[in-house]
Amino acid sequence: MPKISSDTLWEQAAAEVHRREAEGGGEDGGETVSERTVFLMGSKAGGKTSILLRCLDRDEPSKPTLALEYTFGRRARGHNTPKDIAHLWELGGGTSLSDLVQIPITPVSIRSLSVILILDLSKPNALWVTMEKLLQATQAQLEKVSSQAQQAQKAKPGAKHHMPVRSAARVLPKDYPDRELISPFPVPLLIIGSKYDTFQEFDSDKRKVVSKTLRFVAHYYAASLIFTSIKTESLMSKTKSFFSHLAFGLDRGKSVSCDSSKPLIVPAGYDSFSQIGSPPTTDIDITTLHAKNPKDLWKKVYERVFPQENTSEQRELKDPAKDPQYSEPQIDAMRAQKDQELDQYKRDAAKSWKGLELET
């Protein structure tokens, strides 16, 4: 009797595809299809869906993301060649649904996974806390599944056709700037600053704080950084190049811009701490901040300029039925009626119990 595997059908199918790739192609011996996974997350209502649709050349209206949504993109490498596939996951709800990172980040997907973090530049007072919570949740899940995959291989040392396991520590080239001072994100990371059209109207000093801070964070994680706006075709074109680089392995272009008075375009490896400089602290005495490390110092300076909002998203979304972005008029009306009936039932039941108590 064949042994029953505990793997999901998806994991078994993926393992079979990678086994065939390792043996030199599919059944027809032709060119193999590349499959990659891209996980998008970021600020609530920050334009994630709109950016994704533009990158996929889909002319359709964007809708609020319902928790976690999946789609895919396909692209042919040339004439009469198989189309490469990009599995695309988008997390909605800002930081409130960060527990769902465990769905797209699995021992199978981590082999070809990239992460895109989209931050709303028009809301700097929610930017750091959103970035911090989402990156922490994602990194924790990446480290967890990487450890699980490595333990699974150790438990079956003689098994054939093992899929290569990506380590939780990303290896950078020896000449990568500040290689010994940074903490690379476990998988390729792209940070997109959205709604640049609104951000460019900010005071220049505030723009400089946001720009330099995000340059520091991107370099610290060995990530790429780009500012964009769906209202500016040239910026979206450059953003699409960065997206296609992660989704299909295409060239991301040679554009670089580190000028805080312009939209930032900083590919990973093109910046350095010496170019970024120290945090802009015109009115702040750094010695009073008691920072534990450089990243903590940048955080404290940023929060002095932009005090972070104490978001109540988590509490508000405990009951998704009350979230307006999931509204369904007919269903909501019926739900309200049933809630009223339940309240009346509780009141009647309470009266009945009181009557019983008086009779006894």
From TrEMBL:
Gene3D superfamilies recorded: P-loop containing nucleotide triphosphate hydrolases
InterPro entries: DYNC2LI1, Dynein_light_int_chain, P-loop_NTPase
Keyword Cytoplasm: yes
Molecular function (Gene Ontology), one example: dynein heavy chain binding
GO biological process, one term: intraciliary retrograde transport
Location relative to the cell: Cytoplasm, Cytoskeleton, Cilium axoneme; Cytoplasm, Cytoskeleton, Cilium basal body; Cytoplasm, Cytoskeleton, Microtubule organizing center, Centrosome
Major location category of this protein: cytoplasm
Keywords, comma-separated and alphabetical: Cell projection, Cilium, Cilium biogenesis/degradation, Cytoplasm, Cytoskeleton, Developmental protein, Dynein, Microtubule, Motor protein
Family: Belongs to the dynein light intermediate chain family.
Protein name: Cytoplasmic dynein 2 light intermediate chain 1
Organism phylogeny: Eukaryota, Metazoa, Chordata, Craniata, Vertebrata
